[in-house]
Write a structure and sequence with these properties.
Layout (H helix, E strand, L loop, with lengths): L2 H8 L2 H17 L3 H20 L1 H11 L1 H34 L3 E4 L2 E5 L6 H10 L3 E2 L5 H8 L5 E8 L4 E4 L27 E6 L4 E6 L6 E7 L3
Parallel strand pairs: 4-8
Antiparallel strand pairs: 1-2, 2-8, 3-8, 4-5, 4-6, 6-7
InterPro entries: C-type_lectin-like, C-type_lectin-like/link_sf, C-type_lectin/snaclec_domain, C-type_lectin_CS, CD209-like_CTLD, CTDL_fold
Protein name: C-type lectin domain-containing protein
GO molecular function: carbohydrate binding
Length: about 230
Amino acid sequence: MTCNAVIGAETSDETNSVFSCRINFILLLSSSAGVFFLVAVARCTLRHMFRKNVTTLLIFCSNSGRSNLHRVIGVSFGLLCVLQAALNICLRLIIYPYFHQGWFHFQKSLYYISSVKNTWHLSREYCLQEGADLAIINSRAEQAFLENFKMTLWIGLMEQRSERTWRWVDGTPLTEGAAYWSLGEPNNYEGRQEQCVEQIDREDKKGWNDLVCEFSNFYMCEKRIFP
């Protein structure tokens, strides 16, 4: 591939779109003027390099060949490092304060374990007030994370009586491949209307259990920080 082709590929509309999406996402995360400034500088520099100064780069590259191409690549990596540093600062500002408030970080979310018991609906109300919701379990890894607490906790799963289906608090239906029911559950024990779900941790029983929503339990909130 020629030098011109390399630069042309780097400055395509698709590449600009990718950079724009990534940078806008970082800007969305920024909650401090200092971080915003760092990201803004990186954004302006990239825009200058890939949009406003394309002609200069093409001439620069075609006149001197590979050595100048290497310099261009080096500058590109340098700019990516600036973006990475800005992202790291963003994450520190966003995530770290929660650690002092009892939140835990796992994969793309922050989690909170309550220190008091409440009904399912009041538990959810508290989570919503904190900008979160009752936990949604999307994978075996997330279920293992939940089990590590060795507590009985409300999670964000509820039966929709009108549909006779289980749905998460975000409206998505429960799928069989991602259901971690305890043996024999759900069962509407003794004919009770058990529409809410707890993660249970007992010597004789572990996993999900359907339960009357008005019973009191500890609960787990989940705050999504990445899409």
